Amino acid sequence: MSKYILALEQGMSASRAIVFDDEGSVLASAKRDLGQLYPQQGWAEQEPMELWSSQYAVMMEVVAKSGIAPGDIAAVGITAQRETTVLWEKATGRPICNAISWQCRRTAPIVQGLLDKGLEGHIRKVTGLVPDACFSGPKIQWILDNVPGAREKARRGEVLFGTVDSWLLWKLTQGRVHATDYTNAGCTMLFDIDRLQWDDTLLDAMDIPRAMLPEVYPSSHLYGTTSIGGCEVPIASLAGDQQAALFGQCCFEKGQAKNTYGSGSFLLMNTGKDRVKSPSGLVTGLACGTDDRPDYVLEGSVFVGAGVLEWLRDRMRFIEESADAAYYAQKVEDNGGIYLVPAFTGLGAPYWDMYARGCLVGITRGTRREHIIRAALESIAYQSADLVRTMEKDAGVCMAELKVDGGAIRERFLMQFQADVLDKKIRCSELRDTTALGAAYLAGLAVGLWHNTRELADLWTGAAVYRPSMNAAVRDRLLRGWHKAVGRSLHWEEAE
Questions:
Q1: What is the pLDDT of residues 291-340, one digit of tens each?
Q2: Which one-letter DSSP state was computed for residue 374?
Q3: Beta strand 215-217 pairing with 179-181
């Protein structure tokens, strides 16, 4: 029996491919960085053909690096950034415009229009989401409104919509399959997460034709096949990146949670079959699963997490590599009273302010570059601390520890600071990229490589553990300063 799973992971900043064996260990990996486009202030785009070509390239590269025969691949699993929106021609497979990134804020006026129509309550009740420009529905409307002829073609089924997972599936199957999974559909602001179907009220409100939407299935599902080295290999999972990471962290039970530190930061808690309604602005979504009745999750999102380090590197030229940030941060004793709120594209939960903007406060004549770098690193932990406290309150649980993953967990300074401001134990996954692992687990379950989640839980291994050591008075002072700084960033941009 074939015993390898090929996981494809498309993030905002890179395309990755990883081959896992039947014990969940990495056999080989490949990665290519992706570009981002910022055509106007507050806009963010990516080139769909770059997303596809880079993902295909790393897929073929990792198969060659691993040394396995294509026939030994039991299945392919796909996980991708959510909400990012691609529209393409059904006949040619060519995109009709650039993909609008989940970080793009151009659709804020469309969201405001939905609120003005009195649809906020309906959106929250049906989709579990807080109305915001990050979600796919308003992005679809913007493209249909602004690309000549697009809406008419969409009504005829000639133009299709997909989040990135759906776009990759279409290309990998050579246009045979137009589908997505519950976790990605649930992030469009168009999907009823209780009835598990597209919502006509929201489609009508945004004038989005149903004919352009993908079919929706469980995350672990036989979607189709793709050709690798002349072999037809099953594509057996699709999953939004954060739900895939929750699955990869083996958070299968109610109350288990993980935080992923990537370009953004994402805290998810499995709430089982109970849909938790958050009074604090956390969103309710769907977890990865193998059947037609997935568990619910409670989620809080930080729009700019470790992405603030890319800003320090690429825009401010404070550091040469993102990994340099911790070195410079530790050159000073503390943050010197400096707080950086990286609200470059607004703030997510628990603030949900589309019009918040970044701010740097507390500057004095004694402020050094190192203080600002330290403030940037600390901002990642502060934002996650806000999410954890809010989630505990809304879900009525107290987390004894927090499982973490993502590229930034290698930063020991950041992880220790996170443990300190949370006053909780932080447990790092041995594999930083649990997103790809989750996609692999889901695909393996679909083809019988693994039989149940108990087998998967036995495979999970942890790495470093960080325990809080900060004085409570210091922690309280730092958090007061952070919340004061956040207050300065709110409602900065004026609504159009």
A1: 878 899 999 989 899 899 999 999 999 999 888 999 999 999 999 999 99
A2: H
A3: parallel
**Residue carrying structure tokens 């109350």:** 255
Name the one residue in this structure whose structure tokens are 């806000």: 386
| 243, two tokens | 């739900």
Whether residue 308 contacts residue 315, with contact meaning beta carbons closer than 8 Å, is answered with no
For 393, phi then psi, to 5°, come to -65, -45
Please state, as a whole number, how many other Cβ atoms lie within 10 Å of the Cβ of residue 166: 28
The CA dihedral of 229, 56, 445, 223, to the nearest 10 degrees, is -90
Q: What is the pLDDT of residue 496?
A: 61
In 11-146, DSSP assigns E strands to 14-20, 26-33, 45-46, 73-80, 85-89, 99-100
Q: How many CB atoms lie within 10 A of CB 321?
A: 9
Q: pLDDT by residue (tens digit) across 146-170? A: 999 999 999 999 999 999 999 999 9
Distance in angstroms (rounded) separating the CA atoms of residues 342 and 359? 7
Q: Which residues contact 247 (CB under 8 A, 6 or more apart)?
A: 219, 239, 287, 288, 438, 441, 442
Share of the chain above pLDDT 70, in %: 99
Find tokens 């901002």 and name the residue.
379
pTM to 2 decimal places: 0.86
Q: Which of 373, 383, 368, 382 is nearest to 312 (CA)?
A: 373
| CA dihedral of residues 81, 185, 252, 233 (deg, nearest 10) | -70
